Amino acid sequence: MTRAVYPGSFDPATYGHLDVIKRASKLFDQVIVGVLLNSTKSPLFSVEERVNILKDATALLGNVAVYSFEGLSVNFAREHHASVIIRGLRAVTDFEYELQMAQTNRVLAPDVDTMFLTTSLEYAYLSSTIMKEVARFGGDLGRFAPPQITRRVIEKLQKQGDK
Ligand code: ADP
Questions:
Q1: Which of 33, 35, 83, 157 shows a CA-CA span of 20 to 30 A to 47?
Q2: Helix (H) or strand (E) holding 85
């Protein structure tokens, strides 16, 4: 059985992330999405919210599970007995950082390999940051994520504005 983990911040998930998850779910017997609890970043959504958003969005994919994790991706992979870490590559700008991460992970855990899925072209420009930025200025989010996610982004930003 081949099991892969897909770690990231997912603050929140976009069509780009969901595309990677869907494609990975066809390549591996099981895909475990890991939502990083990163204390140095200040995310829009709590880790529990990000996990729930992803669980809802992947509910129809029977071999995908979503958990939160803290610390190193290689440890998350080992905890779940996964031999592969999946990452998405959008453009050359992702490459240097991703290569460095993959090489570091290889030193830390030679038994865990990193595999990159290149983004589908229609999502190459897309990131959670871009989606939040457009949302802050009231732009149309329809091309960025499914309605159940974009609705939550708008609600969250409204709540923040009310404070
Ligand atoms: P991180 O903070 O770990 O980069 P992200 O949530 O931004 O977390 O991204 C998680 C993974 O998904 C990364 O490998 C990133 O390159 C990939 N990714 C993000 N957006 C897209 C997209 N539009 N298409 C394909 N992969 C993407």
A1: 83
A2: strand 84-89
Ordered structural domains, the chain, with CATH: 3-124 (3.40.50.620)
- Ligand 1 pocket test target in 39, 90, 100 with most atoms within 8 Å of CB: 90
Return the structure tokens found at 124: 């190459």
Predicted confidence at residue 93, as pLDDT, reads 83
Dihedral over Cα of 109, 112, 113, 119: its sign: negative
150 vs 6: CA distance, rounded Å = 22
Name the H helices within 28-146.
47-57, 73-79, 92-108, 128-136
Q: 159, exposed or middle or buried, with CB in 10 Å at 0-12, 13-18, 19+?
A: exposed
Q: Provide the terminal-to-terminal Cα distance of the chain, rounded to the nearest Å.
A: 49
- Taking the C-alpha atoms of residue 46 and residue 137, their distance in angstroms, rounded to an integer, is 22
| Global pTM value | 0.94
- 36 backbone dihedrals φ, ψ, rounded to 5°: -80, 125
Q: pLDDT for 32-79, tens place per residue?
A: 999 999 877 789 999 999 999 999 999 999 999 999 999 999 999 999
Distance from residue 4's CA to the centre of ligand 1 (Å): 16
Q: Does residue 114's CB lie within 6 angstroms of at least one atom of ligand 1?
A: no
